[in-house]
Design goal:
The complex is a heterodimer. Chain A is an all-beta fold. Chain A is built from no helices and 11 strands. In chain A, strands 2, 4, 5, 9, 10 and 11 form a 6-stranded mixed beta sheet that branches. A 5-stranded antiparallel beta sheet of chain A has the order 1-3-8-7-6, with no helix packed on it. Chain B contains no helices and 11 strands. Chains A and B meet through strand 4, strand 5, strand 9 and strand 10 of A and strand 4, strand 5, strand 9 and strand 10 of B.
Amino acid sequence: KNEVEQSPQNLTAQEGEFITINCSYSVGISALHWLQQHPGGGIVSLFMLSSGKKKHGRLIATINIQEKHSSLHITASHPRDSAVYICAVKGASGSRLTFGEGTQLTVNP
Amino acid sequence: KAGVTQTPRYLIKTRGQQVTLSCSPISGHRSVSWYQQTPGQGLQFLFEYFSETQRNKGNFPGRFSGRQFSNSRSEMNVSTLELGDSALYLCASSLGPNRAPGNTIYFGEGSWLTVV
């Protein structure tokens, strides 16, 4: 079992839909990152969370430390949101990141 | 300010050769980490440097090495290349290896390595 599990692996939505991507982890962490990767490779860090909830524009990220679970929500999805979304955790005792397998999101117009 | 810069962006090498990849972090960032991304294994941590010292190393063979210079620029080297080393190599920088608010990580565009 991977230390970081994401679901779903693939997600197709219609423009305007509300989207949720889930991340569960099995180790103690000091922080959790949500990353976005577009074709071509570049990765952007969307959020870094250690507790609670963060919001940036149409994106919302939440984390429940007790349940070892985080969610990334996209409200009013748009085709430009199409990308791979990756959950990554930073261990409690170190600084290395462990990654989920990613969620391929496709938003159709 | 300029982002994380990785060079070269694309390269093709033959088995047995070695390769050196370069990463220039965002100005003021002292922590640089390297990752390998392949279709089969996803993203995997290679190593992390802070103030010219390797702080952490992933589960990769000794053929993979790196270093960091006094200006925080970092290089990684892969010797005796194998076909399985074909991957996207990503570098990321941050202020330092802590979890202070705002200490997020910034990734470069990556170096695409193909080994033939």
